Sequence to fold (737 residues):
Amino acid sequence: MTDRVGASGDRVGSVGGLPPRRLVDDFVPPLILEGEHSLCPGCGEPVAMRSLVETVDELGLTDRTIAVFGIGCYTAFSGNLDLEALQALHGRAPSLATGVKRTRPDTMVVTVQGDGDMVNEGLAEVLHAAARAEAITCVLLNNGVFGETGGHMTATTVLGQRTKNTLDGRDAARHGYPILIADLIASLEGAAFVARGAVSSAGEVARSRRMLRRALEVQAAGTGFTFVEILTMCPTGWFVEAAEAPAYLQGRLAEVHRLGVLKDGASGADGAPVAARDGAR
Amino acid sequence: MSRRLVEGAEAIAGAMVAAGCRFFAGYPMTPFTEVLEHMARLLPPVGGTCMNAESELEAVGMAWGAAATGTRAATGSVGQGLSLMQESLSEICHARLPLVVLNMARGQGDYHQATRGGGHGDYRHIVLAPADVPEAVELVQRAFWLADVWRNPVLVVGDYYLAHVQEAVDETPIDLPPPPAKPWALDGSTGGSGAAKIVSPLGTAKRGDPSFVEYGQHLEGIGERLAVMEAGVEPLVETIGIDDADLVVVAYGTPGRYLRYVVDELRREGLGVGLVRPVTLWPFPTGVVAAAAERARAVAVYELNTGQMLDDVRLAVLGRRPVRFIGGLSFDSSGFGIAPDLDAERLADRVRRALDETVRTGVPA
Amino acid sequence: MVLTRGTVVIDVEACKGCDLCLDACKPGVLVMTGATNRRGYHYPELRAGCTACRACAQICPDFVFQVWKFDEPVELDPGPVPSARSTGGDG
Fold:
């Protein structure tokens, strides 16, 4: 693993046959301790993690943030970030995050959870945290499978999606329908900002970063619960080549879990979030 | 010393706040509900937070998060609610967090849950069992201190009587050493320092930290810490007449309070009975029970269940003396743990018969 | 000659050959080689024409890219940029 050269903005002169230049990206982002991980080739979760920590850094929140992790492949990052971390159980991050934020209201509290964690095991927790307008940001890394245990159906798996225990594709008659969790949360009055992005292309990554930024800004304003869902590639769970996974994501998952900002409510007179449908934008 | 007539639930809530508890989360369930009500009333004026959690699972999760920030935090329920919390309670032990947990139990059927744990893996809670409201007020305050010192949950086991009986209580906070510092507590500030903190049941350090160990080794370390905690926590116990008793009765909690009275009365009649009343159910006062059994001819265990503390008494006695079970399930129609058998006459009768049995079977002195 | 605004250094041993960078690169100057690293994964090489847009770094799950922006754009010979590869690999 090549060592980092130095801080962003560092310069070198003419060297290696190339002109003077300045450093823009230095392999591993500073807030990630070790770049090496055992997540699969083409996994979207490290991409999302990078977006999250770089956004925290850009907003100057590094020494005020506590990240509460669920259990999934991404759990590898709870011990690998230069941010304070609290490791929760499968599905339980929102309640822990609530306890943290209520006792440390000046911190920025972010959960990092997968779809199995948040929408299966922890559905009650995230809905209640949203309804209570907890001033936390829940980040969902949604790949439509339980990745860590081998790629099984979750509550967000789309119809027709092949998983380890729906090898013929998810079938409504046998397995019911996916839960569109961001849409569900957007319907709750306590939710102030709800958005769904993806990491399937550089453009989508850029859009997701803007969503994360907006969510953290809204948390800082204290006007309610914020939620950013990020669709991530899981070539292993989807039975596709890593290079095909972005297209699979766009063509299958994003057709059901639609990308975009679902809710960006302005605050009312008493600081409570106002539902976007009232026309307040 | 000024005392006030106060209901147990209110006294316990007051004691928690006096001990510095500033976060409580709970879900209503009889006979725990009033504790939640009182905490909701008492915490906001002192800058604390009381959450009406949407489930017992969320209650323990919220308390976990609060404890991780170094706040003195507590939750509670009834045995059934604690059943829901078990995964979190065992993982909170692995994460080395202080937490006070109340079980206002329906009867005494939760002894195994409290001392053996209904959760997974190797862990123990320190378990305290008050017999009356004044003792509960003291033990609740002690619980927060023990939790902080050992970085482990402490369970306080009560029941319907403890929650709803009114007693004269001195509410002056008890004298305890100041709480230890909590350098591990999270507040965001070490982010970006290269040494950002982590609180996790999977391990206490991040990658690259010299003290980092893999999950498996972290689990192994738990065994060592349990042994240190077991040796370091002094078992609390009350004894009556164990120097000259033929029959030693063992009982805890509200039944322990009744049997304290019954044993005193029977001793006044000249009968050779004594009492061992464990106050810490974990660590169990094994040494005291063993010594008392050694000096007596037999042991009788009374508890409102089908025999749970009985196991720990048998382990302490190790077959050296006969151990009789004189307890049993006793519920009124509500099922909330009001026991018709908790009656001085009935209990005295059981103890008398156990003593007669001991003498009649000629168990050697 | 190809107008080039920046360059990257590719940590070939960290690469897991997922190909995401190839599509992410708007100028299309990342090309997968037949070479493999110690773990057996193919890794990309950089051709002239990089714009230092950082899309590769943003999309890469394994933090393989170090991105540099030139003070002034230069014209480079078309073809691989040799200094873009970190030590390692068998190519």
